[in-house]
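Illustration: AlpA family transcriptional regulator.
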Amino acid sequence: METESASRQEIRFMRLPEVLALSGKSRSSIYAAIKKGEFPAPVKLSTRSSAWIRSEIAAWAESRVKASRVEKR
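Result:
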């Protein structure tokens, strides 16, 4: 039986410049998409610091690829 900590996936935080590079979106479009619920929201790390969870950004990117590859019928 796995322990709780062993079963959890490692969490890696990404700062905004890395999110911008990975997503290909601008800063303003990222925040607009967050407001609409269309992009993962950042996690507050401290009073003046936020970051995104890498696995959530990767899942968002994968969903965009899948959506663009759907055959139109």
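Reading the tokens back as a structure: Strands lie at 13-14, 43-46, 49-53.
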